Structure formats: structure tokens, C-alpha cells
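Design a sequence for this backbone.
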């Protein structure tokens, strides 16, 4: 009898984990679709400000509940981490969405895992190993393929560079979080860094706020981007990390480009080119190889 609840919990966890990973991959894949739709009306700065503010508000109750664990000295790291890990990369991805198909940013986002390993090796003394070094080279080859491709006769190199730089900043942010936010409640920490990022970006958002009317569909996409793709998605991701560990939770990286390309094709009619498939295969393959123990 004592083993029955344990067996039941294992079965529940076995089906729940892949389901939640799939849902999270779909949500983050949607984020590139929402950016693609909303950024022409908002511009990158205003759109990201809405995203950061709404995401922070979703997580504010968790930050308030854990406020005793956030003394003033903690904010000396929380503020710059918010800028590095949220404000700047969000703007870069929004700018990329303004100049290239939604799938481009989603593919570049997959480089985060590789950049995190590279930065840990270069600046924090962690070993990288031959397999990960080769994976990095293959992943960068995928970026080169993507950057030199053309979609509908237009060059997307600048958008690819912006997306790759955003992934690089995510990789740096992962390492900073690991070293300076260990022991803090994850949802509260995410709320704190998003709030700091929103404050830091506010002047640029105000000076670049659109002067014309913003369509309802753009507002709907911006709200979904902040509430669902940022606030609720962070909650789901940290819940997964707590249950299955960061390595297994990071496998969601493989799903985001596929959902991003699928949704852009279904709802925007954006073509998936051969170069995008090759680049995506190189990048995702290198990420998969770097994750093996």
C-alpha cells in the first residue's frame, strides 16, 4: 500500500513533464509570432516595455512574498542582470522580428545553451570539453548559413546578428544568475529582474512611444507577450527546473524554433526556406550534442 502513492506520482510525472515542456515550447515559439505582429505598430522599445512591465506584474506577488530575502545589496546585481538578461535581448529580438521572419529569431534563440557554455569557459573557468567545442563550431556554422541566406529576395543578415547577440546576452545572463542569485526564490528573482529591466528601459520607451493609434490586434499580441510568454512562462519554466533539474528543462530549447516556424507559417504565411532548415538543423544538432553527458 505504501508504494501505491509513489508509483502513482511517478506515472503522473512521466506524462506531465513532456506535456509541460511541449506547452512551454509552444508558448515561447508564439512569442516570436507576437513580436512579429506587434512590433511594426509599437516599435521595439515600446513593445518590450509593455512585455517587461506585464511580466513583472504577473510575478510581483512572488517577489512581495519573498521580499525579506531581497535586501538592498541584492539589487546591485539584480538590476544589471535584468538589463543583460531581459531588457537588451528582448529589444534585439523585437528589432529582428521587425526585419525578418519570426522563425529567424526563434532559431537564433537556440544558441543560448552554446553561448552559456562558451562564456562559462572564457570568463568563469569552467571546462568546455572537445565535444562542446566542436558543437560550438557547428552551431556558429548554422548562424553563418542563416546570416548569409535570403528570404523573399531580402537579406536577413542584420536580423540574424541581432538574434545571435541576444542569445549571447542570454548566455551571459545565465552565468550571472548562477553565480549571484543562487538560493533566491526563482519566481521572485525573475519578477525582480524583469521589474529592473522595465525601469531601465522606460526612458527609451517613452521617447520612442508610437504617436499614431495602435491596432487592437497589436495590443492583444503585446499583452499576450507580457502576461503569457513572459510572466506565466517563467513560472512554468522554474517549476520544471525545480522538478526535473535545469539540464532536462533546457531541452525546451529544441522545441521553440519548430513552434516559432510553424506558427509563423500557419498564421502569417511566412515561408520556411531550405537555408532556414539547414541552419536550424546545425544549431539544434550542436545544442543536442553539447547537452550529452
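Sequence:
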Amino acid at each position: 500500500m505504501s508504494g501505491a502513492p509513489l508509483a502513482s506520482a511517478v506515472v503522473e510525472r512521466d506524462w506531465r513533464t513532456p506535456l509541460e515542456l511541449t506547452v512551454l515550447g509552444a508558448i515561447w515559439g508564439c512569442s516570436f509570432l507576437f513580436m512579429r505582429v506587434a512590433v511594426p505598430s509599437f516599435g521595439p522599445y515600446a513593445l518590450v516595455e509593455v512585455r517587461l512591465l506585464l511580466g513583472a506584474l504577473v510575478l510581483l506577488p512572488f517577489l512581495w512574498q519573498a521580499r525579506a530575502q531581497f535586501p538592498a545589496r541584492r539589487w546591485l546585481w539584480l538590476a544589471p542582470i535584468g538589463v543583460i538578461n531581459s531588457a537588451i535581448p528582448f529589444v534585439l529580438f523585437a528589432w529582428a522580428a521587425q526585419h525578418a521572419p519570426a522563425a529567424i529569431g526563434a532559431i537564433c534563440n537556440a544558441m543560448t545553451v552554446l553561448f552559456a557554455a562558451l562564456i562559462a569557459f572564457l570568463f568563469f573557468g569552467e571546462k568546455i570539453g572537445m565535444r562542446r567545442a566542436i558543437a560550438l563550431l557547428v552551431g556558429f556554422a548554422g548562424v553563418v548559413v542563416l546570416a548569409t541566406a535570403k528570404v523573399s529576395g531580402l537579406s536577413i543578415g542584420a536580423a540574424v546578428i541581432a538574434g545571435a547577440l541576444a542569445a549571447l546576452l542570454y548566455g551571459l545572463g545565465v552565468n550571472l544568475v548562477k553565480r549571484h542569485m543562487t538560493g533566491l526564490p526563482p519566481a521572485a528573482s525573475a519578477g525582480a529582474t524583469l521589474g529592473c529591466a522595465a525601469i531601465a528601459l522606460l526612458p527609451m520607451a517613452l521617447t520612442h512611444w508610437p504617436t499614431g493609434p495602435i491596432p487592437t490586434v497589436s495590443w492583444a499580441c503585446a499583452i499576450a507577450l507580457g502576461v503569457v510568454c513572459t510572466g506565466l512562462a517563467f513560472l512554468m519554466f522554474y517549476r520544471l527546473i525545480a522538478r526535473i533539474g535545469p539540464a532536462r528543462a533546457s531541452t525546451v530549447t529544441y522545441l521553440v524554433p519548430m513552434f516559432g516556424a510553424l506558427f509563423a507559417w500557419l498564421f502569417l504565411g511566412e515561408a520556411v526556406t531550405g537555408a532556414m532548415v539547414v541552419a536550424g538543423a546545425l544549431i539544434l544538432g550542436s545544442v543536442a550534442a553539447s547537452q550529452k553527458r
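The beta strands are 150-151, 154-155.
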